[in-house]
């Protein structure tokens, strides 16, 4: 099927620090960017609490989304120029797929709310489900724009994001172990944090990408560029995304939202300025309009107001979050995990309710894996195409990738207030502090 | 006078995309960064509405402030190493001034509120006054930290920012035509916008800076680096800070705040969720605690709520702001200025109240000027030191700087809703639209 | 006329630090690169003696030439995509011109010899003439490759370089005040020297370039990017190309070649290993085969051998050049020029023959000029295209460019051995040294 | 022992693309840079034949050597500031070691000749031996400068380079698995080739380096930066240093020098312009003065002359080298190695003498290894210092480094003329060509 897609009279560009310029050529793309739902992404930070560790990383999901669009556009250009289909079923690229790929790339994260991970955990919601709803619900501006392409177009776009779209090339472009999404965020997050770990050679990877029947493969020549991308991804997770201080702020946020929810459920917020935009979430009766009002600033505004609520815990946690007082942490493992209840009790004994002042936080990532037909969440492995057209899986030819394949990386940490680590010589609780501190050695629970 | 300043046991660093690392060596600096007033700067964007044009430019004032601190620290290091005073009055650097310089650098922007320029204009307030108040009022955490140095230290720091501190080297470091403040923001804004105009050779400028009795001069060898800085400054103003689209969003914001204020003053907000944190500003009775609660997110939160107020103008303007629908514009000059009332009337005639849907916006900058003893706002000119120690003013040896000296650059624009530019053939107001459009030619009012 | 140009089965790329990749798509381009005459450019430094000042700037003319090709290719791509001719005479781009443009871009500097400027001055030769000869002489591999396109193709390519090709778009691409040649060398030389002055926004300039009947113009939107390019060019000349130390090495080289020529002419080289490859130049009877053997290494090899010749002056100058002992200098002007003979006499009086140990060196550049119909060397001015298609010359809308327009920048320096500046207290010539030193003050002759 | 080292009145800087500025503060360093032996390094390329693959990589050993000096200087500054020795034997840094470290860093490569690896192989010489000789022989300018520090200073500097200097901190700074030498060349070669694989976070590594009794360790915090360096090193070897095309040029060079040597030994060069500067090498009777005359340009000059010698093989190989006609290659392994004599015979059968037109070339690197007390060439392993001061070897905590530890990486290739791969249908030798081509499949010998 060929859509009759309207082109802009003149290409429009957005200046972008990662891709230099983002080129918009289709009217539907420009219209999508101009919807209120898409513009909301300007008010949701890409990295949540990471900006408390890397102060440059204040960039929003808006830039990332148009970045993913741009990489997808470049892939399509390359595929069309060099691997254009000659006849159905030849495994080459059908450029009629371009517009669905571009729209899915642009919209893949449109359902993200503020501090997604934490917020979803407390309020039992899910950004992927919201992404699909925003695309397919007739009340959104996004849906209305998409329907101008065709009535079934919103569903098609949503199905790419759900991985049920029939063309595997389109699906893998947007979502696979090496896709436009990850390539953009690694480069973008590296740029804004000011670290260098996320750098890899995007231009070269785009040059060696090629469609085949089963999806997307990479020329043998470019193996090292792909390897370098896998390493970059691994390093960004270890160095940036899993940073213990950012997670210390995430724990503060979790506890703060938990306390607010608890208070609301026990009607202890009455008599104060109510967090009206959060009430649907407290009550877990959220409609799409409620969801689309949320952004980082709204949460922060309620935190600001809560600093003058009479509840000491809410007040304290709100202050800790807004004034960046992260919880401290120590690593634990399966051998020391059993000590945590006892240690949490010590924290409680000096006056911190353990429900709100202690927590565990685990950060795990599977940097790369091969396809496993028996797994329910099986990954599309990275295929390298040899000179004679045969495919070979990446980890079989890269010693470094092989070292990461199928192995989860990360750590488990126990979080608590910083004051637990301070000497309290003349304090009534000085024994408890000492006891606590004897459990922490070399950043580990002992 | 020598302060007894406590050093940190180990230098602490912040990863920064501009300076790579920011080095904190004194406890007082770390304590200041950790105050709630300083942390608030994370929630105030550095460039206000510019991020609507350059989506990468979402960085906050927090990073800029510690960047200015870092440049100042590097200047002090250089001065101490190479130009340390031998005896009073020799015009060289007294490193006892370091701590006051560092604190002033760090805190120089601490009084900025959300969308400073626009907000101050509507609510008749002033961030410089607030900066001084935050530093000198005993209720702030910042003041409490500063007083640990000495009782009169807050006043000293404030006086650097007010330009009344006796040592001109310290004052010029923080505030002059080539100071740590401007050098940081040009580089930082260039980085985050993704433009290249703001780049100049900071390392070289720092190398050629040197103290003398009257303040700070630059070695002759480095003249071209200083020249390049002046050009970068000029280009950033023309290309980034004065961008007509950002100003189109600024006009929307101005009108939105104006409408809210008007409604409040006429008691038309009753019955709705009141913007409690703004009320002191509506009533122009603001105390420091009110001021310090404000940030970008709080304004945006009220804008979100106002989208469901029953006032059509407030609602529409809030939507335009949150969904990025900038007003369009055309240039005017002294010859066409007289046409503006008539054109505004046309806008009103098709249904847009001109008080809220038209405005003028002027952006002017004086890129560089020589010292003028007769001017009330006289500038400290940039002095170049020759081999024999004599000084020579920059514009006398740089043809390019000379071309900019004393000459204001910028433009004046008339703003209006985008729909005024669209053909309305079958519209009841089609004649008015035509009339309007005949007044606009080649981006100018005619 | 449409050439039947053979494309490569697969695009070939060269990794390039400036353009990331250089894309070769036509067989004729790859064949030209593989000729021995083109490969010789690897052995000729782009910046001659500048690498004695900026040690990173050791790059050869090879990289620059393929860089100019790449920029030209990108311009053609842009012109073809956006401004393709519809009918003859419409002033738009005819893509049949691409191949002649690409070849001329690639070959425009193929006639450069070692240390071009200096060498040509002493041996009375001219790299532009050699470029044309190499392209049009049947004995070169380059000519043989070009003739595969068509018999008259070498002449066409040469005529682009000579500015006599009929299509002004092609000529201006390669040679005008803002052409592929200059854009490449500014960026490349900035990169390799490690300075930042030569940086400008190439991507943006390429976006706003457009063909018109009279040649190439730039969209009004891109005015500031073009302005920035003009400033970069000015700054690179002032800061890099005119650096007094590089010129001090150039003077040593000039004197060394002069001495060798003098000795040869007086038969004083007999009995030693003769510089066989230079003899045609000493005798000013050079054929193309002689010329194409020359490169930097050959000159340096003879300098190495000359260090063991019995002539003291030749030996000394060869040592100075190979061991980087630049002559020192001071500025003079029309008021002090009359002193130079007298000062040169002082240099001679302490034992340095003035013919070989003193010189003047002037570095002048006209950064930008408007078209002057009365001038024999008139420049093609930079035209900015307004919204309605009318053209406006750059300096009329840029205050900075205006400040440079038509004004020559540079300086005149007198060069002499460094020892002239050293105190020689107990020396028999101490009075002469003192006299000399009294003539130099603040880097100027007085 | 404390040297009385003269400081420069004012620090001198060299503009460097990698380190921005290189800071020279001691007179002895500046004097060493100004010697003729050090200046010779400007005429020896850092990467030999790699510039035939990466045309940007034309940088010389000069820049690398002062880069290693600069990194060493920064390490010393850090050690002095943060880890200055309090009493003998405390394992901290004694800044009296600075000058020997700086000189060894600067001079560690001073014995490199043109195309070192290849040249040494044919002429049976060794750049490390020459480095020591240049430092310790009284006839060099370098030795004379070093002796101004003290009579035994040249020997001390040489002993650092030979790893026999008693202080392991100084030795490891210059030579270990993570030293100033490697850190500079990875960054520098990445910059000039235009690849990104060699990038790592030098600033961070320098921050976490610290002296201890046994040498140099790295803070636990910086483990990932060190890991990233090891990966960069691995990737640069795989991607840049082992590039098959560069090695194809290296083989041409080897064969060319071999042929010249063979001809000289058989007196077949008589009657032509003799390569006078190479004769000592042909005869393997080289004194230091002979060695120091050599540079890249001298070899190239003889190659130019050899193109007109009557020997067809010498002529052809010289043309191939100067005009960049690399031999082609295919991988072999222990299973196919036995086929090589047969395949070489085929090459000979079509007219290429196998002594000069076939070769094997192996590129192997051991990216990282732990200390092995039983090995004669044991490596100093990389030690990570934990919070409590205990050391832990890098590969035990890095999965990626572990994957590389002790494992050699590289490949073995068979080289031959490109024409062997071309179809020769109507050729008398068409059968031989076919036979040859059947042995090559997917870049491998079969």
TrEMBL record, chains A, B, C, D:
For this chain, one GO molecular function annotation is: dGTPase activity
Q: What is this protein called?
A: HD domain-containing protein
Whose protein is this, by species? Companilactobacillus suantsaicola
Origin superkingdom: Bacteria
The beginning of the lineage is: Bacteria, Bacillati, Bacillota, Bacilli, Lactobacillales
Check the record and name the Gene3D superfamilies matching this protein: Hypothetical protein af1432 (1.10.3210.10)
Q: Which Pfam families match?
A: HD (PF01966), HD_assoc_2 (PF19276)
* GO terms classed as biological process: dGTP catabolic process
Q: Which residues form the HD/PDEase domain?
A: 57-195
């Amino acid at each position: 099927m060929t859509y009759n897609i309207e082109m802009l009279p003149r290409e429009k560009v957005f200046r972008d620090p990662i891709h230099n310029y983002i080129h918009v050529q289709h009217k539907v793309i420009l219209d999508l960017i101009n919807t209120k739902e898409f513009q909301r992404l300007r008010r949701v930070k890409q990295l949540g609490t990471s900006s408390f560790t890397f102060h440059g990383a204040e960039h929003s999901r808006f830039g990332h989304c148009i970045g993913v669009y741009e990489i997808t556009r470049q892939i399509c250009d390359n595929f069309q120029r060099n691997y254009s289909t000659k006849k159905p079923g030849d495994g080459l690229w059908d450029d009629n797929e371009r517009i669905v790929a571009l729209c899915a790339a642009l919209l893949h994260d449109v359902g993200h709310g503020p501090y997604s991970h934490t917020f979803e955990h407390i309020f039992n919601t899910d950004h992927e489900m919201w992404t699909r709803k925003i695309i397919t619900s007739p009340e959104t501006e996004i849906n209305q724009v998409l329907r101008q392409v065709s009535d079934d177009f919103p569903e098609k776009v949503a199905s790419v994001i759900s991985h049920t779209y029939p063309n595997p090339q389109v699906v893998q472009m947007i979502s696979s172990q090496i896709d436009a999404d990850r390539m953009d965020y690694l480069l973008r997050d590296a740029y804004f944090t000011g670290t260098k770990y996320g750098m890899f050679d995007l231009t070269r990877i785009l040059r060696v990408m090629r469609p085949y029947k089963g999806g997307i493969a990479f020329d043998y020549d470019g193996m090292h560029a792909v390897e370098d991308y896998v390493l970059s991804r691994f390093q960004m997770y270890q160095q940036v995304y899993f940073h213990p201080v950012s997670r210390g702020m995430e724990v503060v946020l979790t506890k703060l939202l938990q306390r607010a929810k608890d208070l609301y459920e026990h009607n202890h917020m009455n008599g104060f300025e109510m967090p009206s935009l959060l009430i649907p979430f407290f009550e877990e009766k959220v409609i799409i309009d409620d969801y689309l009002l949320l952004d980082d600033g709204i949460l922060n505004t309620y935190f600001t107001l809560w600093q003058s609520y009479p509840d000491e815990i809410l007040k304290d946690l709100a202050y800790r979050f807004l004034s960046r007082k992260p919880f401290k942490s120590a690593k634990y493992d399966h051998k020391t995990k059993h000590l945590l209840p006892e240690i949490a009790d010590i924290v409680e004994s000096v006056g911190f309710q353990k429900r709100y002042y202690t927590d565990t936080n685990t950060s795990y990532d599977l940097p790369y894996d091969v396809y496993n037909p028996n797994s329910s969440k099986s990954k599309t492995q990275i295929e390298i195409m040899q000179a004679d057209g045969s495919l070979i899986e990446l980890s079989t030819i890269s010693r470094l990738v092989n070292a990461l394949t199928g192995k989860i990386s990360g750590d488990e940490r126990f979080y608590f207030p910083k004051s637990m680590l301070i000497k309290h010589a003349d304090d009534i609780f000085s024994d408890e502090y000492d006891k606590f501190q004897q459990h922490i050695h070399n950043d580990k629970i002992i």
